[in-house]
Design brief:
The protein has 97 residues and is of the alpha+beta class. The protein folds into two domains: 1-43, no CATH class; 45-97, HU Protein, Chain A, CATH 4.10.520. 43% of the residues lie in helices and 28% in strands. The chain is built from three helices and five strands; from the N terminus they run ααβββββα. The protein has helices spanning 8-19, 23-42, 87-96, and strands at residues 46-48, 52-59, 62-65, 72-75, 78-85. A three-stranded antiparallel sheet has the order 1-2-5. It is extended.
Length: 97
């Protein structure tokens, strides 16, 4: 499971191996968990104790530039997502280094 890029199917397979559930059932669990995260983030900030917190950020419209051609264009306003890791995870990562 220690891959540089982790895909959803990798989560499904690992969950299936650890729990003994079928891959279809594990996929449903992962999909439902993602849906719960999305619904909670839409309603406001999502704080997962001992994991971290997700926060919605409203970015305003601004002027962007192509670095090669110096051509200017408008970057539209949008909603972005910020994730802040909990201190518990940061401390655990620092101990392994």
């Amino acid at each position: 499971m220690f891959k540089k890029e982790l895909k959803k199917i990798d989560l499904v397979k690992d969950l299936s191996l650890k729990t003994g559930y079928s891959q279809n059932y594990s996929k449903k669990i992962v999909d439902d968990l993602i849906d719960i995260f999305i619904q909670n983030i839409k309603s406001g900030n999502l704080n997962l104790k001992n994991i971290g917190s997700f926060k919605l950020i409203n970015k305003k419209e601004r002027v962007g530039r192509n670095p090669k051609t110096k051509e200017e264009f408008i970057i539209t306003s949008r909603i972005s997502l910020s994730f802040t890791t909990s201190k518990k995870i940061i401390n655990a990562l620092n101990k392994t280094i």
